[in-house]
């Protein structure tokens, strides 16, 4: 181990110990925008950007273990946006294969995470959508972190899908449009979001230095705290995660006031 690695290890231990001593508040729900895989691949001279996607996929298990240790209850991972679906086929097809592998690996019997695949799955290839849904369905009731795997996800699309589902449900029960309009409120729409029944994200982390949400959890993040990390996702370390928790604990949440 080099001196730099040793210094980071000591710093990481100090961070973890400090958070434990202070009994700092822990976010119940953490959203993560796993950004920078392609730029990481270019920076290290990889032969393909898919090497970055695979390296990023390999990092996910570590993150979930850190979340388990910290006491986080829900994690939402943004793996693929609706915009990403327009990428060239030579990149998109391997990326979808990597995402399939991620879900299969997280669902393995040795792991304890409950998976929930969210997004416009109808936009994905039928075989991919079926594999993701069937694999996630076999993980229900596990004791670890509840993991939302966002694939083919866009915040505007989610809100549109929620409103559409709500209108269809009321139409099926015989309600008129006027009756729906009279009872419509914020909580009513929230019941039809992909994350219905879950707490909204307390903390949203984005890697790669970009400081924007890009449509991630638009509805749910109204009162979230944000943490932007310069590291590309494949280089995200436990010390970066602990820094995010420390930053969250130091903030006074005002819920829009």
Show unreliable segments: none
Major beta-sheet overview: 6 strands, parallel
CATH architecture: 3-Layer(aba) Sandwich
Strand arrangement in the largest pleated sheet: 3-4-2-1-5-6
Helix/strand-derived category reads alpha/beta
How are helices and strands ordered from N to C?
Answer: HEHHEHEHEHHHEEH
* Total strand segments: 6
**Rg from Cα:** 19 Å
CATH superfamily: Decaprenyl diphosphate synthase-like
CATH domain topology: Undecaprenyl pyrophosphate synthetase
Our count of helices gives 9
Explain what the structure shows.
The chain has 257 residues and is an alpha/beta fold. It has a single domain, classed as Undecaprenyl pyrophosphate synthetase (3-Layer(aba) Sandwich). The protein is 47% helix and 13% strand. The chain contains 9 helices and 6 strands. It has helices at 3-22, 37-43, 49-70, 89-106, 126-137, 155-172, 177-183, 186-190, 238-250; strands at 29-33, 74-81, 114-118, 146-153, 203-206, 225-228. Strands 3-4-2-1-5-6 form a 6-stranded parallel sheet, with helices on both faces. Helix 2 (37-43) crosses helix 3 and helix 3 runs parallel beside helix 4 (89-106). The longest helix is centred in the N-terminal third of the chain and has 22 residues, at 49-70. The protein is globular and about 70 Å long. 33% of the residues are buried.
């Amino acid at each position: 181990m080099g001196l730099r690695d040793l210094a980071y290890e000591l710093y990481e231990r100090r961070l973890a110990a400090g958070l434990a001593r202070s009994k700092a508040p822990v976010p119940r729900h953490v959203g993560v925008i796993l950004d920078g895989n392609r730029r990481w691949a270019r920076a290290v001279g990889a032969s393909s950007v898919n090497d970055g996607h695979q390296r990023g996929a390999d990092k996910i298990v570590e993150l979930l273990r850190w979340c388990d240790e910290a006491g986080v209850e829900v994690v939402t991972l943004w793996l693929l946006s609706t915009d990403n679906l327009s990428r060239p086929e030579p990149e998109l097809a391997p990326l979808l294969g990597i995402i399939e592998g991620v879900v299969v690996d997280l669902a393995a019997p040795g792991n304890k995470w409950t998976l929930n695949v969210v997004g416009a799955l109808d936009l994905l290839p039928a075989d991919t959508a079926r594999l993701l849904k069937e694999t996630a369905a076999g993980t229900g009731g596990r004791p670890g972190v509840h993991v939302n795997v966002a694939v083919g996800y866009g915040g505007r699309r989610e809100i549109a899908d929620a409103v559409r589902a709500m209108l269809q449900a009321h139409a099926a029960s015989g309600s008129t449009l006027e009756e729906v309009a009279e009872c419509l409120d914020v909580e009513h729409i929230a019941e039809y979001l992909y994350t219905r029944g879950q707490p909204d994200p307390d903390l949203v982390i984005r890697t790669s230095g970009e400081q924007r949400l890009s449509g991630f959890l638009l509805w749910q993040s109204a009162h979230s705290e944000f943490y932007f990390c310069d590291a590309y996702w494949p280089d995200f370390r436990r010390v970066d995660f602990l820094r995010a928790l420390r930053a969250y604990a130091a903030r006074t949440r005002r819920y829009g006031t």
